[in-house]
Amino acid sequence: MKRWLPFDLGRRGFLGAGLLAAGGAALSSQTASGQTAHPAGHGAASPATGDVAVPAHRMAHGAMITVGDVDDTRNGFDPTAMLTDWDTGTLSTLPDGRPLRTFEVTAEDKEIEIAPGVMFPAWTYNGRVPGPALRAKEGERLRIVFRNYASHPHSMHFHGIHAARMDGIPGAGLIGPGEEFVYEFDAKPFGCHLYHCHALPLARHIHKGMYGLFVVDPDPDRHPDLAQVARSRLLGTPENAGWQELAMVMNAFDGENEFYACNTIAHCYAKKPIRIVKDRPVRIYLANVTEFDPINSFHLHANFFDYFDQGTTLTPTLKTVDLIIQCQAQRGILEFTFAEHEPGLYMFHAHQSEFTELGWMGMFDVVEAVS
What we know:
The protein is α+β, with helices and mostly antiparallel strands. 18% of the residues lie in helices and 35% in strands. The chain has two domains: 11-63, no CATH class; 72-367, Sandwich (Immunoglobulin-like), CATH 2.60.40.420. It has helices at 11-33, 56-63, 72-75, 79-82, 202-207, 227-233, 238-241, 268-271, 353-357, and strands at residues 86-87, 90-93, 99-115, 118-125, 133-137, 141-148, 157-158, 180-186, 191-196, 211-217, 244-253, 259-262, 274-277, 282-288, 295-300, 305-309, 318-321, 323-327, 331-336, 344-349, 361-367. The strands form four sheets. Strands 12-11-14-19-16-17 form a six-stranded mixed beta sheet, with no helix packed on it.
């Protein structure tokens, strides 16, 4: 059974103690040298020594972050690039004139680095965790060609509307190693959805990394009363281009969650803050796939947002909140702006302190527009 004390005698307790010790050492080192962090978040040189100070974002939360950096090149994916790396597949036309959007997805076993020096034997879609963020338009025909190059049977179960034979469960779309299956269905309803493997044992297949975002943009022609809002969500429109859109998946790894993260790498956005232009609105497609914990959460510092649960409405289901919780597989859309804020570093994180200290914390680096 899980214990909610700050430290225990298990590996998680030693990890927490190690982070605290590292944070204290970093803080002591900075104090001893008389260095101060640059307010913009960049290292400032010490007049006495010429050394570069610890950047402000790495000192946030008392420097309670992992020590060192993950090798994104070895992993084959970069969590910063993941934020805006939408997989829109290949668009063609069916004989009846309807648009057909085709995606190609492979399953493969792959060892990934989830924190500096900590490797995890993942099961992946397209070699990354989370898998590719698939994005389509409401009403399109979707064709997902799934090939299993991994060592176990896998599938793709989509949180959407489709026929039973396309459900990706044992007996309906579950495929063995070396096999291929084609999922085909219409893109509906619009919203922020999820896909994941539905092979058994389910907890193992999901915890190992087999999940990803599945976003269906609304078709403005189908929503005349809110066509302007729908156009702002439709990728490729001028209205959408004004938004800063981010794909974010909350997850955790190793044992019974010894590391927590957003987009897999512990503290990745604390070490590399997400650049936000202050006069452009922000839209986050957020999903929770954390196993072994009943909920996860997202808290935004110094600001509030509107929330669209599941993303299936064009009007908010919650207005002016700074914290939402999601059970596993729950997802939604967050919309907010920093237009009235001064530039600076603004924190976001889970509001379970343990999650934050073990990796699920980041920063928005809000800047003036570049002329």
